């Protein structure tokens, strides 16, 4: 059967051709939408030649071909009209990268990864080296403190033994001196008695009285002098107490304390629960091995040790700090 094409039909659009074919078959838009499994709005857009932006051109051409087949419109006629109305666009094809360019990119990425890993390794090495330097310095400080403490204790024990020996020697010398004096007095009395027996007998009672009287006088003056020498100065006591350094220990701790004259007031180890009170020339210089193990009070105020506890290192400070 030959299909005749009229001039007025040649100017019809795709949507108009499909609508006329649907109306000849007495089909509604809803019926077409149901048979093609499309939305009613899609069928209306096809008949009104509205191109939806959310529908790809490939899918839209497929819908139109299915619609034409349903209403018995020749596919050739509908496609020729559709190509005039919506020419097919050639798809963009991305140029294929050559193998050499991909290899270069991969090589560049490999170098970047190597450089990144190298930087990370250097940073880790520097961090480890810094930590080791601090650890070594801290161990050296502890070793030197321990050596100084041992030397100080040995010197203190030597001084105590020398003091005990000198005290014993002085006691022995005083005993020998008393014996010599008693022997000399006995010899003198014997010689004087042989020379003047009568005078000795007459003067015996007054001499004894003078000796007896002199003894109480001596005993009375001795306590007074002792009391006078032992009475402290009130002003000196208040000064010492104001500069007194009090330390209470919560754990075993090594420390060294010197005054402004360079005198070592204490150097050694204190156990948990012990306390230490010191006085000397200001300012005091303190070196404490475990700052968290000791509470310090100076001039009635508590010394803040938090800055040393946070870094967990040996504390070296001066009291008062403004000197």
Q: Any descriptors?
A:
single chain; 323 residues; alpha+beta; 434 Repressor (Amino-terminal Domain); Immunoglobulin-like; four-stranded antiparallel β-sheet; 11 helices; 8 strands; Cro/C1-type_HTH; Putative HTH-type transcriptional regulator yfgA
Describe the secondary-structure layout.
Elements (H helix, E strand, L loop, with lengths): L6 H4 L3 H11 L4 H8 L3 H8 L9 H14 L4 H11 L13 H97 L1 H6 L1 H27 L3 H9 L2 E5 L3 E6 L5 E7 L4 E4 L5 E5 L5 E5 L2 E2 L3 H6 L3 E5 L4
Helix pairs in contact: 3-4, 5-6
InterPro entries: Bact_Cytoskel_RodZ, Cro/C1-type_HTH, Lambda_DNA-bd_dom_sf, RodZ-like_C
Organism: Xenorhabdus bovienii str. feltiae Moldova
GO molecular function: DNA binding
Q: What features would you describe in this structure?
A:
With 323 residues, the protein is of the alpha+beta class. Among the domains are: 79 residues, lambda repressor-like DNA-binding domains (434 Repressor (Amino-terminal Domain), Orthogonal Bundle); 81 residues, Immunoglobulin-like (Sandwich), CATH 2.60.40. Helices cover 62% and strands 12% of the residues. The strands form two sheets. The chain has a four-stranded antiparallel beta sheet with strand order 4-1-6-7, with no helix packed on it. Strands 3-2-5-8 form a four-stranded antiparallel beta sheet, covered by helices on one side. A hairpin with a 2-residue loop joins strand 6 and strand 7. Helix 3 crosses helix 4 and helix 5 runs antiparallel to helix 6. It is rod-shaped and about 150 Å long. The N terminus is likely disordered.
